[in-house]
Amino acid sequence: MSQITIQCRLVASESSRHQLWKLMAELNTPLINELLHRVNQHPEFETWRQKGKHPTSVVKELCEPLKTDSRFIGQPGRFYTSAIATVNYIYKSWFALMKRSQFQLEGKIRWLEMLNSDVELVESSGVSLDSLRTKAAEILAQFASLNTAETQSTNVKKAKKRKKSQNSDSKSLSKNLFETYRNTEDNLNRCAISYLLKNGCKINEKEEDPKKFAQRRRKLEIQIERIREQLETRIPKGRDLTATKWLESIVVATHNVPINEAEAKSWQDSLLRQSSKIPFPVAYESNEDMTWFKNQFGRICVKFNGLSEHSFQVYCDSRQLHWFKRFLEDQQIKKNSKNQHSTSLFTLRSGRIAWQEEEGKGDPWNVNRLTLYCSVDTRLWTTEGTNQVREEKAEEIAKIITNTKAKGDLNEKQQAHIKRKNSTLDRINNPFPRPTKPLYKGQSHILIGISLGLEKPATLAVVDGTTGQVITYRSIKQLLGDNYKLLNRQRQQKHFLSHQRQIAQTLAAPNQFGESELGEYIDRLLAKEIIAIAQTYSAGSIVLPKLDNMREQVQSEVQAKAEQKSDLIEVQQKYAKQYRVSVHQWSYGRLMANIHSSAVKAGIVIEESKQPIRGSPQEKAKELAISAYHSRKIN
Question: Which of 38, 334, 390, 499 sits CB 3.0–4.6 Å from 341 for a disulfide?
Answer without folding.
Answer: 334
